[in-house]
């Protein structure tokens, strides 16, 4: 029986000119042995609908061609199934692909998928909705929300959004955190939860996070003075933000975040803003819940 491999391409991810040439894909997956489908997304959320269809069509491997947002939309259908996720990194940051050492070079990434060396990785959920790289409710969520108003999805747009957000960021949300039997209250600058050790562009807030340890790495940074904020930014660029005494790391299996004034918190999930209806947020790890193609070591 032929191997069924479906490719879901997000044309607007990254530089926004993504195409997957049929001839190239067929060179790696010849028609005699493989049944290949290439589908293009047309709107936000479309990758999920296309993936659901591909599962019904019997695809054994479904390849997300885009960045972390596209991976999220595809992989959310594959959690706790036997269907294997492949990745062709075509996004801006490509955090998860980079953590898994999947190269941006199309041919190299295709040959990884062809080898079908699948491993199981952890996934996580935020109020029941899966995420794979990271989620956050602090400064990062505000940057993402600003970034989504840009027309281009590139590093420079992230930098512009970061400066714009710095100017207007206020600490109006007071939250209560419950994790590992600890309860604490704070007005967070950062409350960032990572499954993967990379946010994209080779940058990391949680360098010790692992996709296979059954734990989520949380970085907690309370309200900072302007001077400390500047120091944090500089140290972060040199991967030394842990030097700041206000920066704390925790490893958790689950985490509850309650907004104490019942306001709705801004959230980012895998680099996309999500609409949140509740002031209570439950974040959980789902160990070994996704099969994914990686390079053989
Ligand atoms: N045809 C389309 N038009 C507009 N938006 C789309 C289309 N197809 C997919 N999208 C949306 O594009 C968004 C961005 O995708 P993705 O995150 O993969 O790229 P990126 O932001 O450039 O990469 P990264 O997250 O790695 O930085 C996703 O939210 C997805 O829903």
From TrEMBL:
<dbReference type="InterPro" id="IPR016064">
    <property type="entry name" value="NAD/diacylglycerol_kinase_sf"/>
</dbReference>
<protein>
    <submittedName>
        <fullName>Diacylglycerol kinase family lipid kinase</fullName>
    </submittedName>
</protein>
<dbReference type="GO" id="GO:0005524">
    <property type="term" value="F:ATP binding"/>
</dbReference>
<dbReference type="Pfam" id="PF19279">
    <property type="entry name" value="YegS_C"/>
</dbReference>
<keyword id="KW-1208">Phospholipid metabolism</keyword>
<keyword id="KW-0594">Phospholipid biosynthesis</keyword>
<dbReference type="GO" id="GO:0008654">
    <property type="term" value="P:phospholipid biosynthetic process"/>
</dbReference>
<keyword id="KW-0547">Nucleotide-binding</keyword>
<dbReference type="GO" id="GO:0016301">
    <property type="term" value="F:kinase activity"/>
</dbReference>
<feature type="domain" description="DAGKc">
    <location>
        <begin position="1"/>
        <end position="130"/>
    </location>
</feature>
<dbReference type="Pfam" id="PF00781">
    <property type="entry name" value="DAGK_cat"/>
</dbReference>
<keyword id="KW-0808">Transferase</keyword>
<keyword id="KW-0067">ATP-binding</keyword>
<keyword id="KW-0444">Lipid biosynthesis</keyword>
<keyword id="KW-0418">Kinase</keyword>
<keyword id="KW-0479">Metal-binding</keyword>
<keyword id="KW-0460">Magnesium</keyword>
<dbReference type="InterPro" id="IPR050187">
    <property type="entry name" value="Lipid_Phosphate_FormReg"/>
</dbReference>
<dbReference type="InterPro" id="IPR005218">
    <property type="entry name" value="Diacylglycerol/lipid_kinase"/>
</dbReference>
<dbReference type="InterPro" id="IPR017438">
    <property type="entry name" value="ATP-NAD_kinase_N"/>
</dbReference>
<dbReference type="GO" id="GO:0005886">
    <property type="term" value="C:plasma membrane"/>
</dbReference>
<dbReference type="InterPro" id="IPR045540">
    <property type="entry name" value="YegS/DAGK_C"/>
</dbReference>
<dbReference type="InterPro" id="IPR001206">
    <property type="entry name" value="Diacylglycerol_kinase_cat_dom"/>
</dbReference>
<keyword id="KW-0443">Lipid metabolism</keyword>
<dbReference type="GO" id="GO:0046872">
    <property type="term" value="F:metal ion binding"/>
</dbReference>
């Amino acid at each position: 029986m032929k191997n069924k491999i479906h490719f879901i391409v997000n044309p607007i991810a990254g530089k926004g000119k993504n195409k997957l040439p049929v001839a190239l894909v067929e060179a790696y997956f010849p028609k005699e042995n493989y049944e290949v489908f290439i589908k293009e997304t047309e709107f936000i959320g479309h990758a999920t609908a296309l993936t659901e269809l591909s599962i019904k069509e019997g695809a054994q491997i479904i390849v997300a061609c885009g960045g972390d947002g596209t991976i999220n939309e595809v992989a959310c259908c594959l959690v706790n199934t036997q269907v294997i996720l492949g990745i062709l990194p075509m996004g801006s940051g490509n955090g998860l692909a980079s953590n898994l050492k999947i190269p941006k070079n199309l041919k190299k990434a295709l040959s990884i998928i062809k080898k079908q060396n699948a491993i199981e990785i952890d996934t996580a959920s935020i109020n029941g909705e899966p995420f794979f790289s990271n989620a956050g409710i602090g400064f990062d969520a505000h940057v993402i929300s600003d970034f989504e108003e840009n027309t281009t999805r590139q590093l420079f747009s992230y930098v512009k959004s970061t400066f714009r957000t710095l100017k207007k960021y206020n600490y109006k949300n007071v939250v209560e955190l419950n994790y590992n039997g600890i309860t604490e209250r704070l007005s967070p600058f950062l409350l960032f939860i990572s499954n993967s050790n990379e946010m994209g562009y080779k940058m990391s807030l949680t360098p010790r996070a692992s996709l296979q340890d059954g734990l989520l790495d949380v970085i907690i940074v309370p309200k900072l003075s302007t001077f400390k904020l500047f120091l944090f930014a500089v140290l972060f660029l040199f991967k030394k933000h842990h030097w700041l005494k206000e920066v704390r790391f925790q490893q958790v299996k689950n985490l509850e975040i309650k907004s104490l004034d019942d306001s709705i918190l801004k959230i980012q999930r895998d680099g996309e803003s999500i609409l949140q209806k509740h002031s209570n947020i439950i974040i959980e790890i789902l160990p070994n819940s996704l099969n994914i193609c990686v390079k053989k070591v």
